[in-house]
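[User]
Um, tokens okay?
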Amino acid sequence: VSVGTSGVERMRVDSSGNVGIGTTSPATKLEVNGGIGVGTTGGTFLDRQKGDNSSDGIAITSSSGTSHRIFKDAAGTFFIGPSTNPTAFTQSLSGNVGIGTTSPDKKLDITVDTSDDGVILQTVSGRKTLEMLVDNGTNGQGKIHFYTGANLLHGRIMADTNGLNITQLAADKDIIFKADDGSGGVTTYFQLDGSNAKTSFS
């Protein structure tokens, strides 16, 4: 069955009951070839899932062979991810956001399963400024990398079984501790001289 206006087909119901708008060969119960929107005067687009897993939500496809899924589970947790990892991004009903975890414990919870994985901050040109990484070994050690210039690793703060390590990795550079001097300025109180292997106090 087809419905048209001005001699042009607008909607079709095929022999299997699938409905197509803008297409003559709908592959699902409802297939729309074109834009779908909610009027600017208000309203809510409602998708009521049949079940509570990634196969029951919304699938977004492109020319890529992997689609992305948007869905909620029975607890109301919201997920976004590719079909190969549909729970990659999580938001709980409490508002906590998880990446790599389906049960985020804090406002932002990032869980990694490989060593030297974590978070990176960089400029739009791709220059690194800061990394927060995890060594996913037995002790779960964490480290922060500081970069300068053209992705030059300048320093590291790392926790391990021996304690907290602060390391200057650039040649002949110092580690400097500064604080307010009590009069509105900032002064150096402690300095490790990387070129002369000496320590100075103010």
Summary: The CA atoms of residues 1 and 14 lie 6 Å apart.
